[in-house]
Each structure stands twice: as structure tokens, then as C-alpha cells.
Amino acid sequence: MNLPPRVTDRAFARLAEIAALTGEARALRVGVLGGGCSGFQYDIRLDDPAADDLVIEKSGAKVLVDPVSLPFLANAVVDFTEELIGARFVVENPNASSSCGCGTSFSI
Predict the structure, then answer these.
(1) What 3-state DSSP class applies to 71?
(2) pLDDT, tens digit, for every residue of 44-79?
(3) Element (DSSP H or E) covering residue 10
(4) Contact at 8 Å (CB) between 74 and 95?
(5) Alpha carbon distances (Å) from 95 to 15, 69, 75, 83
(6) Cα-Cα-Cα-Cα dihedral of 46, 48, 53, 58, to 10°?
(7) Residue 102: CB partners within 8 Å, gap ≥ 6?
(8) Name one GO molecular function term (predicted).
(9) Where are the domains of the chain?
(10) SS3 67
(11) 107 pairs with which residues across the strands?
(12) How many Cα atoms within 13 Å fall on the side-chain side of residue 60?
């Protein structure tokens, strides 16, 4: 069964921190584009909702997925991670058969 992506509490918490720092509550868009070193790449950015977006919301923080990207992100998990090399939103995607070392592109 294909479920929409799940967003972790840590990712929602980071979105709330960004909104508090900037004074602007923009949503996190998680999409898939053609390209990258493995065939597809993630498009993760702050954006405003479009009429046909899937909106995943918790405590006012929103994550958006457009209808074209939704099948590629079925059952995926959107998380936020902090490591020595930096902090970023990441996608754990069970649909990806392989991905590049940086984690921004994948193949199916």
C-alpha cells in the first residue's frame, strides 16, 4: 500500500525554529526532479503551497508534496539531521534502488 510520506517530529521542530528565526512561516517543499547523478534528485526548499499540493501539517508547520512527486515519495520519511558536516533535511526513500553518496539523487 502506497502511503504519503511521513514527516518526523524532528523535521517539524526544525521548521518551527526556522519560522521563529525568520518571522515567516513558509512550508518545506519536498519534490522530485529529473536529473542528478543517479537519474532523479530531491528538490527540498522553503516555498508557498500550491492548490494541488499534498499538505502534511503539525502545529502550524507544513510540508508540501506536489502530485507528480508523490508516487516517487510514497512511504518515504522526511527527517532533519545534524552532523559534523552540517544540518539538513533528508529523505529516507524505500522506493530508491540506489542513491549517490551525497544523498540528493537516486534511481528507481
Answers:
(1) helix
(2) 999 999 999 999 999 999 999 999 999 999 999 999
(3) helix 9-22
(4) yes
(5) 25, 12, 8, 25
(6) 70
(7) none
(8) iron ion binding
(9) 6-107
(10) coil
(11) 98
(12) 10
Q: What is the pLDDT of residues 15-50, one digit of tens each?
A: 999 999 999 889 999 999 877 565 788 899 999 999
| CATH architecture for segment(s) 6-107 | Sandwich (2.60)
What's at 18, amino acid-wise?
I
Find out whether 37 and 105 touch, Cβ atoms under 8 Å: yes
pLDDT tens track for 81-90: 998 888 999 9
What pLDDT is stored for residue 36 in this prediction? 59
Angstrom distance (rounded) from CA 29 to CA 35: 18
Residue with cell 544523498: 103
pLDDT score of 54: 97
> Residue 104 pLDDT > 90, yes or no?
no
Contacts of 96 (CB under 8 A, 6+ apart): 106, 107, 108
